[in-house]
Amino acid sequence: MASLGKVYIARLVGLAVLGPDGESIGRIRDVVVALRLSGQRPRALGLAVELPTRRRIFVPMLRVTSIEPQAVTLATGQVNLRQMQLRPGEALAMGQIVDTRVRVHDPDLAGLADQDMTVIDLGIERTRTRDWVISRVAVRTNRKGLRRGDIHVVEWGHVVGLTQHALQLPGQNLAQELSQFEGMRPADVANALRDLPPRRRDRIAAALDDGRLADVLQELPPDDQTAILDHVGIDRAVDILEAMDPDDAADLLGELPTTEAEAFLARMDPEESEPVRRLLTHSPDTAGGLMTSEPVIVTASTTVAEALARIRNPEINPAAASLVFVVRPPTATPTGKYLGCVHFQALLREPPASLVGGILDADLATLGPEDSLDSVTRYFATYNLVCGPVVDDENHLLGAVSVDDLLDQLLPRDWREAEPHHDGGAQTATAGATDRAAR
């Protein structure tokens, strides 16, 4: 099939990216463009390609040999595996330009001169020098009542308002970019936010609701967490901290100066701040510092059906849902006497009306709040677990450590930002870096 020399960017999003031998590299999520001086058509520099690992990388347009309806083919299968980062003057076509407001000064569309228009797509084409440039802009008039606005396609030179400065103005619509995050896991949203310029990241963070932002914040590096909290202001920051899991809130506050952390805690609801304060009393490299204070806890008189209903909650991650902890009242941590635990698989084997007190694993060893990282790691390896109870000297359940929190502590502090190691990665990275420098 013949290669396309003109294409609209919205049609590229989601296409597979293939090497010359047909090997799959990833999928296109956006196009990086360079906004130039007034009157000059912006260059389409390259593709934002999402690898199977969810990492987004930059692939120069010069590497593209063909664009077809189902896939984009590259001249080489070697690509730069470094996390994509925008440079000054660069923008994401779908993430930053589409859905912004502009004016159109087209002699053939004189009736639109004084109207606010919304960008809905960008057309790019290849020039004789093999560069790709934005040649056309698809815009829509603002809707009136229930009527959808009319769509017009105009030449780039007739559009006013698509500049790097204009894209940073607070009045631009974020609906398109926010819609891209719908259905994405918090960790993937966090990775996408890290690719954006700080101003754009802060604007999107401000537009997310408290619960969603709390989930995303938990997946960001400490520096980005504190930067976003500073941007949203103390009142909303308190609401976000209250929406976070206590252990993640404690980790975040532990990165702040003591006086600043105390200021947040003092403004939080006492019921929300109390478990966070307890967690902060433990060293972060101990079981007490790793644990969550809100594991799945029931009494011995709870039925199997009720226990299964508890762990069916989608807000509970799979590791935490693998064990149900059984105690005497009260069931809020620190609980009454710890009796034992029930494994998820054991619940599946029992009749729904059975009581969890009859299928207890009372022999499983427990962790102490001062146990070291090495002890916790050996505990999981010894008992083949992904979650374990933390119990004090008086046999009260304080919380539970899950394997995700353990890995987060064992990995390097900047693991979310560090580049993965790949065989031959040095050669691949050098080739990719050379391509990007050449543009």
Automatic annotation (TrEMBL):
PROSITE patterns from the UniProt entry: CBS
All copies of the CBS domain together span 291-357, 360-419
- What GO molecular function terms would the record report? magnesium ion transmembrane transporter activity
Name the InterPro entries on file.
CBS_dom, CBS_dom_sf, Mg_transptr_MgtE_intracell_dom, MgtE_N_sf, MgtE_transporter, PRC-brl_dom, PRC_barrel-like_sf, SH3_actinomycetes
> Where does the sequence pass through the membrane?
none
What CDD domains is this protein classified in? CBS_pair_Mg_transporter
What Pfam families does UniProt report for this protein, alphabetically? Answer: CBS, MgtE_N, PRC, SH3_actinomycetes
**Region entry Disordered, spans:** 416-439
Record carries keyword Protein transport: no
Q: Which GO terms describe its cellular component?
A: membrane
- Keyword check for Iron-sulfur, yes or no: no
- Compositionally biased tracts (Low complexity): 425-439
SUPFAM superfamilies from the xrefs?
A: CBS-domain pair (SSF54631), MgtE N-terminal domain-like (SSF158791), PRC-barrel domain (SSF50346)
Key words, A-Z: CBS domain
State the name under which the record lists this protein.
CBS domain-containing protein
* Protein's organism: Gordonia amarae NBRC 15530
